[in-house]
Amino acid sequence: MDNHSDSDVSSQRRVHSSSVSSLDTQSTEIDDSCEDLQGSDREYILVVGGLGYIGSHTCLELLKSGYNIVIIDNLSNSFRSVYTRLENLGRNYFDTRCEPMPQIHLYVSDYRDEAAMKQILGEYVRPHTSPQLLEGEARLESRIRGVIHFGAYKSVSESIQQPLKYYANNVAGLVEFCSILNSFQIKTFVFSSSATVYGSIANSGMPLREEHCTHQEEAFSDHEGVTKTVLGGCTGLTNPYGRTKWMCEAILSDLALADPEWTVLALRYFNPVGCDESGLLGEDPRGVPTNLMPVVLRVLTGISPVLDVFGTDYPTADGTAVRDFIHVTDLARGHIAALAAAFDGRVPKGFRTYNLGSGKGHSVLDVVNAVESASSSKIPLRILGRREGDVGSCVAMPKRAETELDWKTEKSLETCCRDVCNFLDNFKRPAMPVV
Ligand code: NAD
Prior knowledge:
By secondary structure, this protein is α/β, with parallel strands linked by helices.
């Protein structure tokens, strides 16, 4: 099956090409259905990068939770066909329940294209619902209730070779985008951050707590109940990608400090793996993947001959690096939990970070074994030395998300592997010998 076809957009709203972007996308395409957005009372969640790996799974969970969504994606690392699959999955879900599906709108555009962003956001304004407006208060309000921002480049190795590309998209893009959101009074923001912000603190081998990396001075009690004060800053970030995530957090923290109307939740993902149980959404980047699971899949499908294992002399049970793998559907649901907590006022206004991880570590060899048993295939390994910048163990302390967002992981590593094999059966031809 060709899962990369660009000709299969059959959205409920038509998509047409409207203007040429000056940035690195070919064109900006604006959804132009006949729905009268100005006259409608519907509210939406804006998802930037919503066709990517984590974004697409989050969009599906948003739909299932009843949210109308607006996706902005420039397809720099995703395919338009993901939209069709997303829409079909949503429709099947609601058809079986005999319920109407929430709205889903797609704009193929670069989020750094200021004119396009203003045009898109301009379509989602309505007269202010508050009858008593204060002097000088805006007469229009946005029907975008909140934003989830996935749009970024994410390859560590590429970021080392092309740092400016990363700072331009991930950092400069965010600054401009937040200014535009500000002007539309859209101030609930969920940001895709990463455990990479913990830098060399991860080397301690201790479960990582949010207080290990803060942006303002913060007091907390440690595991022995001793009150400690941390100063803002980071330690030992090893690459530009990691620095972009830390910088974005710092910028958002400053923004929320300056304007208390902003609620910013920075979700620090640990290692997302797996895919939707249907096997119809998955991790399918345009470029060569660097994350463990898609690399394993390349070996399973015969694209790569062996799986390189970097380091077998770490102080872990089997010597290979240990990570906190989290099923992408659990991760996606973490975003729904974060939005719900923000909308219900269960999290304080301002900037707050949350670890999204399981709290359990699995080694590279655990993953290999789990994939081998889910796929009934053997994965040839090539043992190499440690890779520069890697840490031996990186596991979350997910208590804050559990307590404040009422969220925790539910799915096991075995489930991740089973679901990935479904995706593989749907879209790729396995080429490995059966064990
Ligand atoms: P992805 O590359 O699959 O998805 C990102 C999406 O954003 C893609 O669809 C891409 O086309 C789009 N995009 C990029 N730049 C854009 C721009 N300027 N305008 C519009 N769209 C743009 O990546 P992912 O794995 O889904 O990651 C999503 C977010 O989570 C990223 O911010 C990433 O840094 C962060 N994150 C990912 C992981 C991981 O292991 N996958 C771990 C920690 C954090």
